Amino acid sequence: MSVSDLLQFLAVGKKTGTLKFMHQKVVKGIFFENGVIVGSSTNDPKEYLGQVLIHYGKLDEAQLQAAMEVQRKAGKGRLGQILITQGVLKESEIADILKIRTLDIIYDLFIWKEAHFEFIVDDPLPPDFTRVEVEPTLVIMEGIYRADELMRYRTLIPSDRAVLELGSGWTSSLSVGKEVRQILYFVEKRMSVAEICYNMHASAFDVYAQLYDLVNKRLAVVAGELPEIADPINDMPNLPEGSAELLLLARKELTQNDAEQAMSIIHTVLRREPKNSAAQTLMLEAESKFMRQVFSKLSPTAVPRLLVRPEDLSEKELGPQEGFVLSRINGEWDIQSILSICPFREADSLRMIKSLLDNGIIGL
């Protein structure tokens, strides 16, 4: 079923419960009450409140890092309340952004190519979610519009791996807004579309829309695409085909204290079967063990620094996520500060930092 058909079915039936979507490691929920959408949830770090506040210009990365540091030291507390207490934002500003975020989480589902879903009837609503009341028909109309628009954008910008460069229409004296100028700066740096999304703390839809407009105005041109990053487990000999056998292999790697390899194997299973509960549970165990192993050898307060000349980084074949992490290594922020502002799962960010260390690109 399509997302629009699912929402329409639940609206017409005046259902109450949670519609859950699973794709790889991402799990999203839409909360229904008598057929009306009243909220949403996500475990995708790109859609966490801090990242959304940065995207909408309510916060910068330094302010997010400071608030996350307070949260970490206290061991509890919601980010929004911490920002209000610090005087960084007003309660009304947090509330407005939370409502926008609630809908953006849902709209993003319309551009997913595939996912597993389930509806949990009369599932109790979370006690701390942001309540909205939206007719599913309005959400469906906006979601379909975004999906159609993204297809149009991709006629000029083929994929997240596309790299653009400044076009003939660009001059430094051109009058453009702050956000567009920032995107043009990233284009000049020859970042891929994915990396621009991370640096803008924005959804793919928003970035594709801006880039499409820039290409149409000849302020930018598509210069090519980065190669796909190979799956690290492809190099493993005698790799089993079945998911059950892969999970047994991942469990063996965990037993032998190679949590990083286990994570790679489990990720492959989740890419094939997002709803595999055994893989989801084992991934949490592997991530936890990996972080303990890394931090047993590496202090979270250690400050990484760049060891390679910036002009030589193009030879290192870094992916867009690694590129984002690397750009936050400034010789001032420690590892736990960098983890707090990255729009990725904490274990994934730490894994990239470890890889950069192992490859001699950064040092401590």
Can you put this structure into words, describing what you see?
This protein is of the alpha+beta class. The chain folds into 4 domains: 3-152, no CATH class; 154-225, Arc Repressor Mutant, subunit A (Orthogonal Bundle); 232-295, no CATH class; 305-363. Helices cover 50% and strands 12% of the residues. It is built from 15 helices and 8 strands. It has helices at 3-12, 49-55, 61-74, 79-85, 91-107, 136-153, 178-188, 193-200, 204-216, 243-255, 259-272, 277-297, 320-327, 335-341, 346-358, and strands at 17-23, 26-33, 36-42, 116-121, 162-166, 220-225, 305-306, 362-363. A 4-stranded antiparallel beta sheet has the order 3-2-1-4, covered by helices on one side. The protein has a two-stranded antiparallel sheet with strand order 5-6. The longest helix is centred in the last third of the chain and has 21 residues, at 277-297.
> Which regions have little confidence, pLDDT < 50, spanning 5+ residues?
none
Structural class: alpha+beta
Q: Round the mean pLDDT to the nearest integer and report it.
A: 89
Helix percentage range:
40-55%
The Rg value, from CA coordinates, equals: 21 Å
Euclidean distance between termini CA atoms: 50 Å
Largest sheet: 4 strands, antiparallel
How many DSSP-defined strands? 8
Shape: globular
The H/E string reads HEEEHHHHEHEHHHEHHHEHHHE
**Please, how many domains?**
4
* Count, helices: 15
Biggest sheet strand line-up:
3-2-1-4
Explain the layout of strands and helices.
Layout: H1 3-12, E1 17-23, E2 26-33, E3 36-42, H2 49-55, H3 61-74, H4 79-85, H5 91-107, E4 116-121, H6 136-153, E5 162-166, H7 178-188, H8 193-200, H9 204-216, E6 220-225, H10 243-255, H11 259-272, H12 277-297, E7 305-306, H13 320-327, H14 335-341, H15 346-358, E8 362-363
Antiparallel strand pairs: 1-2, 1-4, 2-3, 5-6, 7-8
Helix pairs in contact: 1-6, 3-14, 6-9, 8-9, 8-13, 10-11, 10-12, 11-12, 12-15, 13-15, 14-15
